[in-house]
Amino acid sequence: MIFSFLLLGTLLSGLFAASVLLLEGYLEDQLIGSTIAQELDDYVMQLREDPSVVEPFYTRIQGYVTRPGDPNRSVSAQVRELDTGVHDVDLADGHFKVAVRKDEDLWAFLLYDVTDNRRLERQLFTALIGVVLLFSVLALAIGMWSSTRVMHPVTELAKRLEEAEETSPSPQLAQWFADDEVGQLAAALDAYAERMHHLVERDREFNADVSHELRTPLAVISGATELLLAQDDLPAKTRNRLLRIARAARQSTDITTALLHLVRAERGTDEGSESHSVADVAQDIIDLHRPLLDSKPLELRLEEEDRVSVIAPQSVIAVTVSNLVSNAIRYTPDGEVVVRVGSGRVAVEDTGPGIPEDEIRLVLDRHYRGEGATGSGSGLGLAIVKRLCELYGWRIHFENRVEGGLRAEIVFFGA
């Protein structure tokens, strides 16, 4: 708004000044030029009627008559060389507007001193420049004052919106503003905040209820599966199927527990967690996944460079690492998947095809699945991992390895 006022004021005053200068120059050329040209024609006409008419002499107009080839020292060579018409000429004693008429039998010159006119033009130009600058300053001051007055309610609205507590059902902004455009905007924001609050609360309650209610049937499934796996006479196929059920039950239990912690943390009611070894959790995950590789030519192993302990629920650590391991196994047809723990981080490296560089930024989006994905996944696993990492202040990123494959890394602390 300030820039608009400044630009408008400067342009308007500049156009006015330019118009004045152009109009002044145009009128001078038309009036003086036509006047001295008419005076010269009248004088030549009188001279032809009465050759005894002497050359006119005035304070600012000088007239001379000569013959072609007959030099008249009163007329400078610079003027004598001009063609018929009206010209602007700078002479030693000033600036002149010269009317010239060259007939076959005589040449006539009429000089009009416009030195004072040029001086006045320069003064006028300087004055107009000052006026333009003055109007620009005034436009800037008016713009600043107007923008402050106009934007104050909007600034106040933004300030109160920032100060509103996230957990409040509505910031109640409309009560602080008049019933104008800003007041209507504040009322709309109040209504929108109310709807969003209810949606978020319903989402949190749903996640909490589902996570809580699923824990019991999952515990029953896990217990029954462990009892069945304890039998020694199970066929190999049946044991593999039970292992898949146990793995799925374990993952589902970890996810529901992690979601429950997520909801509690968002509400500020989550209690402190104990410290857990990332390598121990990763080893359990590897042990769960290794029997499910079947005949796939893929090596799955853990490399612990140094001990990394994280203060977080074990289920949260398990969900984050398990998703990275599951994705590495799903996208790697052969080779190896290595889980490296050390330096305050955990990294999962595979020998698969990797991810196109322009798609790496999309892997954490909801419902995103790579082109080589198999199975019936929903693409929500990494989105949940992203939320958990944001909640606990961890950093997660993906990069293609130089030797081939993908490296997925979670930084718990450190550089």
From TrEMBL:
For this protein, the Enzyme Commission number is: 2.7.13.3
State where it is primarily located: membrane
Boundaries of every Histidine kinase domain copy = 209-415
* Compartmental location: Membrane
Instruction: Report the residue ranges that make up the HAMP domain in this protein.
Output: 148-201
GO CC entries = plasma membrane
| CDD domains for the chain | HisKA
Transmembrane region(s): 124-145
PANTHER family hit by this protein: HISTIDINE KINASE (PTHR45436:SF16), SENSOR HISTIDINE KINASE YKOH (PTHR45436)
The name this protein goes by in its record: histidine kinase
What organism, scientifically named, is this protein from? Marinihelvus fidelis
